[in-house]
Amino acid sequence: MKNKLSLALSAFIGATISLLLFNFIFNDTSKIINKTKVQDIPEKEIIKEDFEVVKSTINTIVPKEMDFTDAAQKTVNAVVHIMSEYSQSYHSDPLMDFFWGPGGSRGSRAQVATGSGVVISEDGYIITNNHVIDDADKISITLNDGRELIAQLIGTDPSTDLALLKVEENNMSFTSFGNSDNVQLGDWVLAVGNPFNLTSTVTAGIVSAKARNINILKRNSNENIFPLESFIQTDAAVNPGNSGGALVDPNGKLIGINTAIASKTGSYSGYSFAIPSNIALKVVNDLKSYGMVQRAFIGVVIQDVTQSIMDELELIDTKGVLVTNLSNGGAAVDAGIEINDVILKVENTEVNDVPELQEQIGRYKPGDIVNLIIRRNDETQLISVKLRNESGSTEIINKRELEKESTIHGALFIDIDANTKKRLNINGGVKVQSIENGKLKEAGLKTGFIVTHINKQNVTSKEQLINILKNNKGGILVEGIYSNGVKGYFGFGL
To answer: Choosing from 116, 243, 263, 272, which is the catalytic residue?
Structure first.
């Protein structure tokens, strides 16, 4: 009897130990499988019975933020291939010197330039780079499904290298704007475009820097170009033809417009640059509403705070942006800003270098009041600044309204203000606000030129200038001055 009892007890103990051992081994194996990448499991070990375990393992080893399939599918249908046609051979772009900017491949005698664009609304608005379509005689786009459409140019902004197009089409696939302020270093991004005419190409990378100024856009006050560079830098592969394409986050939200690469060869070599979506959105809204961008200025000359400047001025740190000079009669002077003040914040956003400050101010219009936090003599102050336009006024200029009564021979004219007259030491004049194909452009007039005389007669208003040009026949002599003080003389016949 004792032998039977001992045998039963031994069997029970053995079974218990076996069960515990089985559970230990199974659980431990599950932990190992869940921590092992599929490629690390020998092929012979991936048997049919384990397929579901391995399948679930695949889903867990890829972080959600690195799954770009949905974002790619959303974006490729919203990125278009742009072809810009020219009546004359297109010469090499000055941006080619070191940083690549042109929209795409151009032969030495090419009359067609190619690039990319992003559909941003279902009714056919498309944003791209200005250098992709600059001075084009005809702009056409090709959708991802192969359809070709003619695009109308709504407006351009050379200061940010952006342009807005429109096609007559409804229910288009489009990409929604994201908030570029929320982008962090190390975030994953997708670049979508048409490099080397390879349509609908998707590449991935991370955000490697923000607020980059690469000096690719050149200032030209005569043509109202005041560069605004605050690029998002990524290592997503971008090549000629990607210009104007989309930079999106893993959710498919538009956070940038791909614009340039750092390269000595013209092809991708590690870094690419995109215009932040918040800048692009402001440009789009202005071009839609006014036909031109309403650029606002504080009226200061600024620079980064370096270690040497910190030591020289005995500043407490290198944070902020230093005010080194003030514009006469500018907004900063009226607000009480002084030389050697350090601008620390625009509203609630810290600014630690020039591009960051320019990006923040670039979101406002003339007439807007902006609160700045500055440091002066180791004390912080709140200063409210009423921003102004490049002429020193708070006026909003609506290009469409002006064109109705202020355009002749392809040129749009505006009256100049008292500050401009005083600065240039002139009694009057009318400024070329924009210019398109026509007799005046053929004669050599450019945006920003101020007409002071026509046929030796003083010009004091745009109405007078237009009447003179309407009522005069034969030879016309135009005299004037650029905003930098250089005088100009142009002749043409009517």
So the answer is: 243
